[in-house]
Write a structure and sequence with these properties.
The chain has 2 domains: 205 residues, D-Maltodextrin-Binding Protein, domain 2 (3-Layer(aba) Sandwich), CATH 3.40.190; 102 residues, Periplasmic binding protein-like II (D-Maltodextrin-Binding Protein, domain 2, 3-Layer(aba) Sandwich), CATH 3.40.190.10. Helix content is 36%, strand content 14%. It is built from 13 helices and 9 strands. The strands form 3 sheets. Strands 6-5-7-4-8 form a 5-stranded mixed β-sheet, sandwiched between helices. It has a two-stranded parallel ribbon with strand order 1-2. Strands 3-9 form a two-stranded antiparallel sheet. Helix 1 packs across helix 9. The protein is globular, with a radius of gyration of 20 Å.
């Protein structure tokens, strides 16, 4: 699945309809959407804050979507299949699964970036493992979920520091098992995402080795080194876009408004409080990791680079043979209709 697990519905139960609040203005003074029901694949990460805000304030409802339901999935492949089958209309995964799926011929399209999540990726090691230099990673076992963005991060870490990735001792395990393994010394490091990195550092016998954007190795501590290219994306099926142009536009309008609301510093406390209420996660945890997520919907050269880098990883790992340009499966027209300044590079997909 994508880098994070979908766990459970964060509102009143799986399939609950949501409403409340108002959302007026010129955007919805036009034609109504072709469909009035939306199903969203959902999870408990901070990346779902825009969805929570939009549902809690009733912005989907006022856009013409009278019923919005949320569904959870045990894996990204299952969520992608549900999207194509029409069981859900919006999927918000990390960028690795949709890149892989588009290359496999799955008819999906990227509507936008929900959040930049590079900083939330964490390599944490036991203090007694004495990881001070990149080469120290050769002599320890590293727990990570193979095939996830953690694998891609390790690939780019090895590439940046000139390590032989084949010499790294990787133990395939999901984040909860990584944390248990780290505590028992079955593994000496874990490459994960939040909240697992935060939880690992709470034990007191661990230390941060690298984030997706910054090194903590002794020789370059505090220096900017990007080894993660993780984005949370808005993904829909090609069929939905073709059959429902107005609904697609309305959905994008709501999502962009919610992103702006979440990104506005003056709304930080309100949004975190909503996230904590809906996810039932600890407030201190949410506060600690919140700023590691950047809600920036801009389509620019960085978007292309991040998608291309993960495509590069998939090719290097043997999962892809003929890479496609990310703009070929990116649909930017709805975002451009809302705010042309958001689209600095135009997607090539056309319904």
């Amino acid at each position: 699945m994508q880098r994070r697990r979908f766990l459970r519905n964060v509102v009143t139960g799986a399939g609950a309809a949501l409403a409340g609040g108002t959302f007026g203005g010129r955007a919805f003074a036009q034609a109504r959407p072709e469909v009035t029901k939306l199903g969203l694949a959902f999870g408990l990460d901070p990346v779902f804050a825009p969805h929570m805000v939009a549902m809690q304030k009733g912005w989907f409802r006022d856009a013409g979507f009278t019923e919005v339901t949320t569904k959870t999935f045990s894996g990204g492949a299952i969520a992608g299949e549900a999207l194509v089958a029409g069981d859900i209309q919006l999927w918000t995964p990390g960028n690795l699964p949709p890149i892989s799926m588009t290359h496999s011929g799955v008819p999906i399209v990227v509507l936008g970036t929900n959040a930049l999540a590079m900083s939330a990726d964490r390599l944490v090691a036991r203090k007694d493992a004495n990881v001070r230099a990149p080469e120290d990673l050769y002599r320890i076992k590293i727990g990570l979920l193979q095939g996830s963005t953690a694998s891609a991060n390790l690939f780019f870490l090895a590439k940046h520091y000139g390590l032989d990735e084949k010499r790294l001792q990787v133990v395939n395990m999901p984040p909860p098992e990584q944390l248990a393994g780290l505590n028992s010394n079955a593994v000496q490091a874990m490459f994960c995402w939040q909240p697992w990195g935060h939880n690992a550092l709470k034990t007191g016998n661990t230390e941060l080795v690298h984030t997706g954007l910054e090194s903590s190795f002794a020789a370059n501590r505090g220096q900017a080194v990007q080894i993660s290219y993780t984005r949370s994306l808005f993904v829909v099926s090609q069929e939905f876009v073709r059959k429902n142009p107005v609904a697609t536009r309305r959905m994008v309008e709501v999502l962009l408004r919610s992103q702006r609301y979440v990104a506005d510093p003056k709304n930080r406390n309100e949004v975190i409080a909503l996230f904590v209420e809906q996810s039932r996660q600890d407030r201190a945890l949410a506060e600690a990791i919140w700023d590691q997520y950047v809600f920036d919907p801009t389509f620019d050269d960085r978007y292309v680079r991040d998608m291309e880098r993960l495509t590069e990883y998939l090719v290097a790992s043997g999962r892809l043979k003929a890479p496609r340009h990310p703009l070929d499966y990116t649909y930017t027209d709805p975002s451009a209709a809302v705010d042309p300044a958001l689209v600095k590079v135009a997607g090539r997909f056309k319904p």
